[in-house]
Design goal:
Strand content: 15-25%
Bound molecules: flavin-adenine dinucleotide
Number of strands: 10
CATH architecture of the largest domain: Up-down Bundle
CATH topology of the largest domain: Butyryl-CoA Dehydrogenase, subunit A, domain 3
Order of helices and strands: HHHHHHHEEEEEEEEHEEHHHHH
Length: 387
C-alpha cells in the first residue's frame, strides 16, 4: 500500500461521510472499517502477529498525514489504537496483553486515556487528585476526569492516579466495573466525543497496573511523544485540505474584476498559508525522524506542536475568509477544520507549555555549553570572585 492508496481511501470513502461520522454514527464507521479491511489498509502500523499490517513507525509516518487529513481517518483505518497497543505491549502484564491486544487491533474494542481533571490544571499532571487505594488483589480508584476522548464507548480507561502521596501510576480501569460512570458528554465548540467520567472506589485488579507503581509519568511521556508527533501530522494534513479548498475557491469565484485569485489580498492569504504549512511539515518531519529512531525529540516535538496547531488554525480561518459566508456553514468542512485548529492549541499540552519548556531547554543547553567552553582558570577566577 502507498500514500496514494491511503489518500484515495480518505477522498473516496471517509471524507464523503464525515458529517455522519461527526454525529457518532457507528454504522458509517463499521462500513468504512469493512472497506479498509477489504482494501488491505486495516491497522497498518499495528503488529502483524496481532493482526495488524506490521508497518514500522518510520513507514507509517509516511502515511499518517494523508490518513489524518480527516479526523476520522485513524479510526476508520484501524490505527487509532496504536498508542494503546504500544503502551500495553511494553508495560502491560501478561493478563492484560492477552485480554486486550487482539481485540484492540481487530477494532472490536477501544480504549480511552484519562489524565485531565476538572478543577486542576491539565498542563500540570503532578497535581492529579484521583487516588487509588490498595485493596485485596487490586486497587480502588476514586476521582473525576474530563475531556476523556471516546470514554463512552471504551472497554477500559487508562487513568493517571495517585497510588501514594508522592507516586503517580497508570491503571487500566475496565468500564464494566461497578464504580465507573460516564457523567456527561462535553461538546467542544459544538462537537461531541469528549466525556466527563467518575470513579467511585472502582475496583481495578492488580494486573491492570501498567509498569510498576510510580511509573505513571514516565510511561505517559513516552506515549505523548509519539501521540503528539502523530497528531501534528494529522493537523498538517487537515491544514493542507483547507488550503486546497481555499485555492480552488479563489480560482473559481469571481468578483467584478475577475477571479478572487487575482486579488492581492487573497494572494497574501495563499502565500501565508503555504508558508505555515510547509514550515510545520518540515518541523514535524524532524520530530518524526527522531521519534522513529527512539531518540530524544522534546525540542523538535515542542516546535512541531506549536507550528502544526497554529498552521491548522490559521489556514482554516483563511479558507473561511476566502469562501465567504458559505465557509461558515456545514456545506463545507471548514467549520470542522477551524474547530480542530482551535482545540489543537490547547490539547496535547497548551502552546504556552511547549513554548516555555522548549525555550528553557534550549537556554539550559547554551548555559551548559558556555560553561564547557570557558577555560578552567576562568572558573577559578569566578570562584574566587564569588568568595
Ligand atoms: C478536543 C480535546 C480532546 C482532549 N482529549 C483528552 C483525553 O483524551 N485525555 C485527557 O486526559 N485529556 C484530554 N484533553 C484535555 C487536554 O489535554 C487539556 O485541555 C490540556 O492538557 C490543558 O489542560 P487544561 O485544559 O486543564 O488547561 P490548563 O492547564 O488549566 O491551562 C489553561 C491555560 O493556561 C495557560 N498555560 C498553561 N500552562 C502554561 C504555562 N506553562 N505557561 C504559560 N501559560 C500556560 C494556557 O493558555 C492554557 O490554555 C482534551 C482536550 C480537548 C480540547
Amino acid at each position: 500500500m502507498s500514500v496514494e492508496d491511503v489518500a484515495a481511501f480518505l477522498r473516496q470513502h471517509v471524507i464523503p461521510v464525515e458529517a455522519e461520522l461527526d454525529t457518532g454514527s457507528s454504522t458509517a464507521m463499521r462500513d468504512l472499517r469493512d472497506k479498509a479491511r477489504a482494501e488491505g489498509l486495516w491497522a497498518l502500523p499495528l503488529p502483524a502477529d496481532l493482526g495488524g499490517g506490521g508497518l514500522s513507525l518510520r513507514d507509517y509516518f509516511g502515511l499518517a498525514e494523508a490518513e489524518g487529513s480527516s479526523d476520522h481517518g485513524p479510526a476508520a483505518l484501524g490505527s487509532a489504537s496504536l498508542l494503546d497497543v504500544r503502551m500495553i505491549s511494553t508495560h502491560g502484564s501478561r493478563t492484560v496483553r492477552e485480554h486486550y491486544l487482539r481485540p484492540l487491533v481487530a477494532g472490536e474494542i477501544s480504549g480511552s486515556y484519562a489524565m485531565t481533571e476538572p478543577g486542576v490544571a491539565g498542563s500540570a499532571p503532578t497535581l492529579t487528585r484521583t487516588t487509588a487505594q490498595r485493596t485485596t488483589g487490586g486497587w480502588a480508584v476514586t476521582g473525576r476526569k474530563w475531556f476523556t476522548s471516546g470514554a463512552s464507548a471504551a472497554a477500559y480507561v487508562t487513568v493517571l492516579t495517585r497510588t501514594a502521596p508522592d507516586e503517580l501510576s497508570l491503571l487500566m480501569v475496565p468500564t464494566s466495573q461497578p464504580g465507573f460512570r460516564v457523567v456527561r458528554e462535553l461538546p467542544v465548540l459544538g462537537a461531541g466525543g469528549q466525556f466527563e467520567i467518575e470513579f467511585t472506589a472502582a475496583h481495578v485488579p492488580d494486573d491492570h497496573l501498567l509498569g510498576v507503581p510510580g511509573d505513571g509519568l514516565v510511561i505517559a511521556a513516552t506515549r505523548l511523544a509519539l501521540g503528539r508527533t502523530l497528531r501534528c501530522m494529522r493537523w498538517v494534513g487537515q491544514a493542507q485540505r483547507a488550503f486546497d479548498l481555499m485555492c480552488r475557491r479563489a480560482n473559481d469565484r469571481h468578483v467584478h474584476t475577475g477571479p478572487l485569485a487575482g486579488q492581492q489580498l487573497v494572494q497574501r492569504l495563499v502565500f501565508d498559508s503555504l508558508l505555515v504549512i510547509r514550515s510545520a511539515r518540515a518541523l514535524v518531519a524532524q520530530a518524526a525522524d527522531l521519534v522513529a529512531r527512539g531518540e530524544d525529540a522534546k525540542t523538535e516535538i515542542g516546535l512541531a506542536k506549536v507550528a502544526a496547531a497554529g498552521a491548522l488554525q490559521q489556514v482554516a480561518d483563511a479558507a473561511i475568509q476566502v469562501y465567504g459566508a458559505e465557509g461558515l456553514t456545514a456545506d463545507t468542512p471548514l467549520p470542522m477544520l477551524a474547530r480542530l485548529g482551535r482545540a489543537a492549541r490547547i490539547l496535547d499540552g497548551p502552546d504556552e507549555l511547549h513554548v516555555s519548556a522548549t525555550a528553557r531547554r534550549v537556554l539550559k543547553q547554551f548555559q551548559a555549553e558556555g560553561e564547557e567552553e570557558r577555560a578552567p582558570d576562568q572558573f577559578v577566577a569566578d570562584r574566587d570572585t564569588a568568595r
